[in-house]
Fold this sequence. Notes:
Low-confidence stretches: none
Order of helices and strands: EHEHEHEHHEHEHEHHEEHEHHHEEHEHHE
Bound molecules: NADP nicotinamide-adenine-dinucleotide phosphate
Structural class: alpha/beta
Oligomer: single chain
Distance between the termini: 45 Å
Largest sheet: 7 strands, parallel
Number of strands: 14
Radius of gyration: 20 Å
Helix content: 40-55%
Strand order of the largest sheet: 3-2-1-4-5-6-13
Amino acid sequence: xxxxxxxLVVFGATSFVGKILCRYLVDxxxxxxxxxxxxxxxxxxxxxxxxxxxxxxxxxxxxxxxDDIAGLNAMCLQTRVVISTVGPYALFGEPLVQACVQTGTxxxxxxxxxxxxxxxxxxxxxxxxxxxxxIVHCCGFDSIPSDLxxxxxxxxxxxxxxxxxxxxxxxxxxxxxxxxxxxxxxxxNVTKEAASxxxxxxxxxxxxxxxxAGHKSSKRQPNVKGAQYDPDxxxxxxxxxxxxxxxxIVHRSNALQGTPYGQEFLYDEAMMTGKGxxxxxxxxxxxxxxxxxxxxxxxxxxxWILERFVVxxxxxxPSPESQKSGFYDLRFIGQTADGRTLRTxxxxxxxxxxxxxxxxxxxxxxxxxxxxxxxxxxGGFWTPASIFGETLVERxxxxxxxxxxxID
Length: 408
Ligand SMILES: NC(=O)c1ccc[n+]([C@@H]2O[C@H](COP(=O)([O-])OP(=O)(O)OC[C@H]3O[C@@H](n4cnc5c(N)ncnc54)[C@H](OP(=O)(O)O)[C@@H]3O)[C@@H](O)[C@H]2O)c1
C-alpha cells in the first residue's frame, strides 16, 4: 500500500454526483498537493472534458470499464482508496468490489441497494479480511447522517446517563433537493428485482438483513408504513423513502461495534409532515405517492412510462441553484429503558442527494486514506459509524457543512 501512486481514485468521475465530488475535492484539497488523487471512468473523452470543466489539465486520469476486471485490478493497484459512483451498483458494481478485495484496496460508495450489499458481504467478506481491504458502502445521504446521527446521540446519552438509549427515532423535519437519474434508476432496479423474487422481498422486510452472521438482535422494530401521528413531536408522519437502507445500516453498525446500543435496540425513521389536518393530508399524500411509485416501477408497462417520461434520466439531476438552496434537518429522539430522553439534530447544507452527498463521500474517502489505520480497523465490510465514528463527524463539521448538535 505504501508504494501506491494515489491516495484516492474517483471511479465514475463523470457521473452526475462524480462531477460535483471532483469539484469539491479540487476546492477542498487541490490537485497534486498533499492529497494525491485521480479521476477514472470508461470514457477518455468524457474524462478529458471533465478536466477542462474543472480547469485542471494536469489532473491524472485512468480509463477503466466497470466490466473489465483486469483494468479494474490495474486501477486499484495504483491507489490506496477507490471511491465509486458507478451505479446502479447491483448492475455495474460487483467487479470493482472484487478487484478491491483482490488487491487489498479500500473502497467506499453511494449504494443504498440492500440486496446488493448483502450479496457483496456474503461473496467477498472472507477475502476482504485476508487482503486487508476495507469496504464501506452507503457513504452518502443514505446512510451517513442517520448512522453517525445515532452514533452521536448514543455517545451523548452515555456521557449523560451512563448508558445508551434503547430506542432512537429519527424524523426528517425538513429537506429540500431533487432526485437524480442515477438514484431513480437504482430505486427502479431494486423494485423490479423484488417484484419477481420472493426471497428478496423477504430479505427487504428483515430490518437485520445486513447484520453480521451470529448477531443476537431480533427485537421487533417499529416501522412507519403510513400516515401516523407522532406524540413526541406533536406532528403527523409519513414513511421515509431512505428508511429501509438506513435502518439496516444502523443495526449493522450496532452489531459491528459489539452492540453498544444494546441487543434490544429499537430504531425507526419517518418524515414529519406538519400539524393538524394539513399535516395529516400531506402524510396521506406522501404515502400514496410512494406506494404509486413502487407499484409503477414493479410492472413493465408503467416502469417503461416512468423511465421514459416521468423521472430524470441517468446523468441528469438537480440544477446547481437547487443544489445550493437545498438543505436538510434531521431530528433524533432517544429514550433509555427507564424513560430518560435526549434530543439531537443533524443538519446539512446543499441538497441531500447530491450537493451534500458528494461532500460526505469525498470526506469518507479521505478519511479512509488518511485517518483510519489498518491496525485499528482491519479488512472487511464496515459501516460509516463503525469504521469512522468521531473522525468523520469532525471532518463533516469542519469541511462539509454538516452539524451534529444536542437540543437541550
Ligand atoms: N446514497 C446516496 O445518497 C446517493 C446519492 C446520489 C447518488 N447515489 C447513487 O450513486 C450512483 C450514481 O448516481 P448519479 O446520479 O451520479 O449517476 P449517473 O449520472 O447516471 O452516472 C452513472 C455513472 O456510471 C458510469 N458507468 C455506467 N456504466 C459504466 C461502465 N460500464 N464502466 C464504467 N462506468 C460506467 C457512467 O459513465 P459515463 O459518464 O461514461 O456515462 C456514469 O459516470 C447511483 O447508483 C445512485 O443511486 C446515491
